[in-house]
Specification:
This is Radical SAM core domain-containing protein. The chain has 389 residues and is of the alpha/beta class. It has a domain of 239 residues: TIM Barrel, CATH 3.20.20. It is 37% helix and 14% strand. The protein has 13 helices and 14 strands. The strands form four sheets. The protein has an eight-stranded parallel β-sheet with strand order 9-6-5-4-3-2-1-11, with helices on one face. Strands 7-8 form a two-stranded antiparallel ribbon. Helix 1 crosses helix 12 and helix 2 runs parallel beside helix 4. The longest helix is centred in the middle third of the chain and has 19 residues. The two termini are 22 Å apart.
Length: 389
């Protein structure tokens, strides 16, 4: 199965969408995001700003055997890439009784020194590695120590470590410095191909000195990439936004450093767009139709996981093929909890233009350079990558 899509794929999608989305099951996931838990102790600097503060510590954990069944279905479908993300922290320790039950049922031995840390995720990751998926792990790095790195790095294509800004007197990079060093050292010692990325969250008011100090520290540690990403801003009514225009100055500062290991997430591309949304459908979800929560439900968007309005299928009741059939019947609507700057926003802006233009141009749409440019921009934004988004 192709992970990358091309303008021809967009043309096929436009034709299918304009034709009433028939036949069903046109949607095929290029990559799939999976949560293993909503449990997370939280960090002093991110408890208020966390994307998933509404779901933290609801107690959901993806059962090992249920997860294995999901992975088998994804393998049969031809999925190649898995992103293990979180409404919680994937490496969060389990209570002893849960650990013992999982270890007994899954026949996972207790490696000396590991205790009960992340044994469920390690078991799931081992299955994913055995099946041959390209695995990506997003973690805050708190439990990524000398005892855990050897158990997970061999099965990973990419390890992304999220680091919130210094807030409330708490410096997360200082706390996990030795854990990052452990992961990098093990990778180098074993000559592993896994890429280790530090993902730094920034706010519009993050000091420039903090940014340069972090780049220097992470470069010295030997990470492969330092990636900057804007935090969500929560309003008093409980809604949120990225506030893209507020990030203009800090984004230009980071890009102006011209550091070979430094990258800015797609916020710099959003800064060139009109702030107002003009689309009513999230076409991005057509290309990323599977976002599987630790509760076994499928959601329309990785940024709105665990919000009831975005539920799109229950894997306890339906197979993945059945869910794809259901969600392919009509576009995902833009709902009140959606916000500018979300992961699908940039792609949706360009896809919306193409959908409107196709009504008049039909299959000749890409004969016009401006629509081909929209297609190329949409393709770049559609990647649900742990690096880009």
């Amino acid at each position: 199965m192709r992970v990358n899509i091309k303008p021809q794929d967009l043309l096929d999608w436009l034709k299918w969408n304009a034709g009433g989305r028939k036949p069903e099951l046109r949607l095929r996931p290029r990559e799939v995001e999976i949560d293993v838990t909503t449990c997370c102790s939280g960090l002093p600097s991110c408890r208020a700003d966390c994307t998933y503060r509404h779901s933290r510590n609801k107690g959901e954990r993806l059962d090992y055997f249920f997860a294995r069944d999901i992975l088998q279905q994804l393998l049969a479908l031809g999925v190649e890439k898995l992103i293990f993300s979180g409404g919680g922290e994937p490496l969060e320790p389990f209570p002893d009784e849960i650990y013992r039950d999982i270890a007994r049922k899954a026949k996972i031995k207790n490696v000396p020194g590991v205790q009960n840390i992340a044994i469920n995720f390690i078991g799931i990751l081992n299955v994913a590695g055995y099946f041959g998926f390209e695995n990506v792990l997003l973690t805050n790095g708190v439990y990524l120590g000398w005892n855990i790195s050897p158990q997970i790095l061999r099965a990973l294509k990419l390890l992304r470590i999220s680091i919130p800004p210094v807030l409330h007197g708490y410096d997360h990079l200082d706390r996990i410095h030795d854990n990052i060093e452990a992961a990098v050292c093990y990778k180098k010692d074993q000559d592993l191909p896994v890429k280790i990325v530090a993902s730094l969250l920034i706010r519009p008011d993050t000091p420039q000195g903090e940014i340069t100090d972090r780049i220097a520290t992470l470069n010295d540690l030997g990470v492969d990439l330092v990636r900057f990403k804007p935090t969500h801003l929560w309003r008093e009514d409980g809604s949120r936004s990225i506030g893209t225009t507020n990030y203009h100055d800090i984004t230009q500062f980071i890009l102006g450093l011209n550091h070979p290991k430094v990258k800015v997430a797609k916020i710099n591309r959003l800064l060139t767009e009109d702030v107002m949304r003009t689309y009513n459908s999230c076409y991005y979800a057509d290309f990323n139709p599977l976002v599987i929560g630790a509760d076994g439900l499928n959601y329309a968007c990785c940024e709105t996981k665990y919000l009831p309005a975005f539920k799109r299928g229950n894997l306890h009741q339906n197979s993945i093929l059945e869910i794809l059939g259901l969600v392919s019947q009509k576009p995902q609507p833009v709902l009140p909890a959606c916000f500018s700057g979300c992961k699908g926003d940039l792609a949706n802006r360009h896809l919306h233009v193409l959908v409107k233009a196709y009504q008049a141009k039909t299959d000749a749409i890409f004969d016009e350079p401006k629509y081909l440019e929209h297609a190329e921009a949409a393709l770049a934004a559609l990647v649900r990558s742990a690096l880009e988004n």
